[in-house]
Design brief:
This protein has 29 helices and 4 strands. With 728 residues, the protein is mostly helical. The chain is globular, with a radius of gyration of 27 Å.
Length: 728
């Protein structure tokens, strides 16, 4: 008995040691974030010192040849192309999500949802290739008087909007699906039609989740590199006028990718590019905080989380601004700042007065709508003591009239901005008024039409929008496959490139891509799975665990171009690896690490507590329970996360172009200190440099698509297999 007691005590002692070992490994995630921030910030100090932070932020000229590093045109280009993408993607994405969640037959919902999720994994270089070969020529032929080459802010916005569609559709559909069924049943029991229930009950209830989807779509657009670099025109200028969608612009990501390979390490130009990366990280971090706050609020609303103040509210509550409270006000302040920024830009062109007038109108309308919608409809019997209480005293009918008038004004403003690109101010104003009048007439007509007819019309419109969204995504694949598949042969897959990559095969690029996958997974898998186990099974709500989770979220939202810069600065330059496989391994491994951690953590949390309690009741330690009971039960979801990470590694271009790849290789290298060819970078090089035939370019894109999409299909099969096998 004494020997048995000693063995039991030893087992539980080793379990404690295991816990602290896992904690130490999880701390690596925190250190990685600090290392990335340290390298980015450290390398940007030179530009801050030489040029000054004020001149960097407000300078209107980016001319490295003349030592001018004003980032204002580049920041403006980033904001403009992101805004354009959101304006394109949000109406289509939200309408498609409503169709999937509320209109589509149940047997089609999972199919449509799966299609949108698969398209989210298409590599950005594929979208860029499509934009360069299809979208840009189409815009050039459509607007010959405005576009000479086709590369423009408009092209970048449309392409990024298409890329953001899968994210917006998927997250918005999840938000709509999270609305309790009782909401729908109560509404329809009171005589409302399905469409009235959808538009007046379900959608308002899911508005926080839809807002999070929009913000995540913004994050995808802001952090995109390869697509915008291939279609935006890459001119570091402020559009003149500011809303000229045909102007060529250059976002932050494109500037870094274009100029970093040619700068002198340690120069002011080198440091200025890192300063741009720092600004990009701040933008993405702000978006991440906002989306997290919105998601948490949605969960609290439906009782899925504890009623804790969101990080957004905690930050805003500290601002010295009267009557500012909550994330809505934060977004209002941010919106007013952005509009003020655009107004300041308007003074740089002769159309400033018109832009100022329009911007002021939009500002008043948008802020008024935000203010009205943010206030609760409640009766106040005392004398109002604040603007909030004063507006609460306004009758609901008056508020509705005011809101309708503001809607018309907003419509006029946006139509004016669009029409003024082609016609003078008088025509633009008349067009805006005409559209508002037609809208008002349609609203009056719809009020007199039977609600069932309105429902049929609305469902038809949603079906058309959904079909259009799917068509855009499928067309991209079809265009590439139709031209690329005929060129694919055994010789093409196993041959070596010829004539600097213009002809021959792609065998070295395939091997290089597979090497990058294997090496990055060898780094990310152990660290990611172990950290996920610690967070799910051992971590309590402590400052350390919150720091770990926040660090993982920061890593997950960091644009791939920033990982590329960090990899180049840390591994290529500082550690002296040069352009090599090992530098690519570590950079890609760090990039997919948060995906594996989060997937593992959520998979383990989904396992019922009863399994853990039963195992430990039989004398098993915490670690034995985790390894022998919990992890096998969650293995399907863990494998799914791993496969999705493999697909992302296979399709990434920005991180490896600074760390691991070269354009041309006639033999396979076997050293981890040598660079390699890779399919994404080879496609980018062939497309942008005009190397090889269009069929050759499409063939490379086809092979890359087959590899990436096969990973996503395999992930779906694995998930479906384990879902059927494991029943709680």
């Amino acid at each position: 008995m004494e020997a048995e007691s000693i063995r039991t005590e030893s087992r539980f002692h080793s379990d404690t040691v295991t816990k602290y070992l896992l904690m130490g490994i999880a701390a690596v995630a925190v250190s990685i974030v600090f290392f990335i921030i340290l390298f980015i910030l450290g390398n940007s100090i030179g530009a801050m010192t030489d040029t000054g932070i004020r001149d960097l932020l407000t300078g209107s000229r980016w001319l490295p040849s003349k030592d001018l590093y004003g980032t204002l045109p580049i920041i403006t280009g980033t904001l403009l192309v992101t805004a354009g993408a959101i304006l394109f993607a949000v109406p289509i994405g939200v309408a498609a999500a409503i169709f999937i969640s509320e209109v589509a037959p149940p047997r089609f919902r999972s199919v449509l949802k799966s299609i949108s999720e698969v398209f989210a994994g298409i590599p950005s270089v594929i979208y860029g290739f499509f934009g360069l070969t299809v979208l840009v020529p189409l815009l050039r032929d459509t607007f010959p008087d405005h576009l000479l080459m086709g590369n423009s802010w408009l092209a970048g916005s449309i392409l990024l909007g298409i890329m953001a569609l899968p994210t917006i559709i998927s997250v918005s559909e999840d938000a709509l699906g999270a609305v309790p069924r009782s909401y729908r049943e109560a509404s329809m029991a009171m005589g409302a039609t399905k469409w009235e229930t959808t538009i007046k009950v379900v959608t308002p209830a899911a508005i926080s989740g839809i807002s999070a989807a929009v913000i995540l779509g913004m994050g995808r657009a802001i952090g995109e590199t390869m697509a915008v670099m291939m279609v935006c025109g890459n001119s570091a200028i402020v559009p003149d006028p500011i809303f000229d969608v045909f102007s060529r612009i250059r976002p932050i990501t494109a500037t870094i990718a274009l100029e970093m390979p040619y700068v002198v390490v340690g120069s002011t130009h080198y440091s200025a590019l890192f300063f741009l990366a720092l600004i990009l990280m701040i933008m993405v971090l702000a978006i991440s905080i906002a989306s997290k706050g919105i998601v948490n609020r949605t969960r609290r609303k439906f009782g899925e989380a504890e009623n804790k103040p969101s990080l957004t509210n905690l930050i805003v509550a500290k601002l010295p601004i009267p009557f500012v409270n909550g994330s809505k006000s934060a977004f209002a302040v941010a919106g007013l700042f952005l509009i003020s920024y655009l107004i300041s830009m308007a003074f740089l062109n002769p159309f400033g007065a018109a832009v100022i007038g329009t911007s002021v109108t939009v500002t008043v309308v948008a802020s008024s709508l935000l203010l009205l919608n943010s206030l609760e409809k409640k009766e106040i019997s005392v004398r109002p003591r604040s603007p909030s209480e004063f507006i609460d005293c306004i009758p609901i009918k008056t508020k509705d009239i005011f809101r309708r008038i503001l809607t018309y004004l907003l419509m006029v403003a946006f139509v004016y901005m669009g029409t003024s690109l082609f016609y003078d101010g008088t025509v633009a104003v008349m067009a805006g008024l005409a559209v508002a009048a037609v809208y008002a007439a349609l609203m009056l007509i719809f009020r007199r039409i039977d609600s069932r007819i309105i429902q049929k019309i609305a469902h038809t419109v949603l079906l058309v929008v959904m079909a259009f969204a799917i068509f855009l995504l499928v067309y991209i694949l079809a265009d590439i496959f139709i031209e690329g598949l005929p060129l694919i042969s055994w010789d093409f897959l196993t041959g070596y490139p010829k004539d600097a990559g213009r002809a021959g095969g792609i065998y070295p690029a395939i091997v290089g891509t597979l090497k990058l996958i294997v090496g990055s997974m060898a780094i990310a898998l152990p660290l990611g799975i172990v950290t996920g186990i610690f967070l799910a099974e051992y971590a309590k709500d402590t400052p350390f665990t919150r720091t770990v989770r926040n660090s993982i979220d920061i890593l997950n939202g960091t644009p791939s171009i920033v990982f590329g810069l960090f990899g180049m600065s840390a591994f290529v330059v500082y550690f002296g690896f040069g352009y090599s496989l090992i530098a690519g391994y570590i950079t890609l491994g760090l990039m997919v690490l948060p995906v594996i951690i989060r997937t593992t953590e959520e998979a383990l949390k989904a396992v019922p507590k009863e399994l853990r309690e039963g195992s430990m009741a039989m004398g098993a330690t915490k670690w034995e329970t985790t390894v022998k009971v919990v992890l096998p039960a969650a293995i399907g979801s863990v494998i799914t996360g791993v496969i999705l990470s493999i697909g992302r590694v296979a399709g990434e271009t920005a991180p490896i172009m600074f760390t691991a790849v070269i354009v041309y290789q006639r033999a396979i290298s076997h050293s981890i200190l040598d660079p390699v060819m890779a399919l994404p970078y080879q496609l980018f090089y062939l497309a942008t440099e005009g190397m090889g035939s269009s069929a050759m370019q499409s063939a490379v894109a086809t092979v890359l698509l087959i590899i990436v999409l096969s990973m996503f299909v395999l992930a779906s099969v694995v998930r479906h297999y384990f879902d059927k096998r494991i029943k709680w």
